[in-house]
Amino acid sequence: MTSKIELPECTAEPLASLFNTLRLTRLGDNRYLGTNLPQITGRVYGGQVLAQATMVAADTVPGGPEERLAHSITAAFLRPGKIDIPIEFEVTELNDSRSFSTRSVRAIQSGHIIFTARISFQLRQPGPAFGTQMPEVPSPENIPSSVDFFAQVDNEWGHIMSTTNAIDMRHIDEHIFVKPAAERTPRQQVWIRTRNPMPEGSSRLLQRAMLGYAADQFMLEPVMRANGLHWTNSHMSIATLDHAIWWHRNFDLSRWVLADLESPSAQNGRGLVIARFFQDGRHIATMSQEGMVKVRGETRHED
């Protein structure tokens, strides 16, 4: 008999619909089945798959996901997923040592592997502690909200983003949703939080999976910003290739988190971004992502 991964009850949309995609069905033998959120592209959103992989890997860890907490994930996006086909996840138990557990996850559609990840879990242990200082930035309360912006966009993109995206994003500099930034720079800072409060009983694991879900939608923006690109540029093709996360400290995504991002390099149709995440002055996570960023008609090559 199958059952679903347990999450706290949530009825507030769009968070409730996201939670439903993270309540994956257990099929047995470390296999799980997941559904997909709607997307205007018809392709599965990478942050959804990354969050789902985090949840299923944790479901196989001895002592439960709150005893051994996810501290890192390294993921590769191998081919686009289709939103109208459920995704099957296969978890392989690589290692269970005294302090750490390691799992690999494969996401499969129609017999093809679309995503792989290695996820590591650790018991809480004492050790040296310090973190990068949080930069001083304007308060999110005085910055325009992405929720308000997309609610005013009268097309399918605006409808999907305003009704299904569970994250409120507030760009400290101007956003690049529909036009290039005035300044071409490989740096960007964004405040983020869930549009609805995370329900009581939300685990540390769920919070970490949700941060992965949230970040994938803006991680490559410093590459775009530096090259004068924006999301509605019809000549641009963009996709995540790989994504790594290191979760350092606990946090609550119901409250504002600052993402501080920078791209050190872009070449050959690929761009790399490094990001640090902060809450209440504490360094809570670090991410890196490389993605495909191509522009039709571009002729420059750099090896």
Please describe what this structure looks like.
This protein is α+β, with helices and mostly antiparallel strands and 303 residues long. It is built from 6 helices and 13 strands. The chain has a single domain (3-123, 143-295), classed as Acyl-CoA thioesterase, double hotdog domain (Porin). The mean pLDDT is 94. Strands 1-2-3-5-6-7-4-10-13-12-11-9-8 form a 13-stranded antiparallel sheet. α2 (46-58) runs antiparallel to α5.
Give the key terms:
single chain, 303 residues, Porin, 6 helices
Q: Let me know the average pLDDT.
A: 94
Shape: globular
CATH superfamily: Acyl-CoA thioesterase, double hotdog domain
Helix content: 10-25%
Radius of gyration equals 19 Å
User: What oligomeric state is this?
Assistant: single chain
Sequence stretches where pLDDT stays below 50 over 5 or more residues: none
Termini Cα gap: 54 Å
Q: Output the helix-strand order.
A: EHEEHEEEEHHEEHHEEEE
Question: Proportion of β residues?
Answer: 35-45%
How many strand units? Answer: 13
**At the third CATH level, what is the topology name?**
Porin
**How many domains?**
1
Write the layout of secondary structure elements.
Blueprint lengths: L2 E2 L10 H8 L2 E4 L2 E4 L11 H13 L9 E10 L9 E10 L3 E10 L2 E12 L22 H6 L4 H9 L2 E5 L15 E8 L9 H12 L5 H6 L9 E12 L9 E11 L2 E10 L2 E14 L8
Antiparallel strand pairs: 1-2, 2-3, 3-5, 4-7, 4-10, 5-6, 6-7, 8-9, 9-11, 10-13, 11-12, 12-13
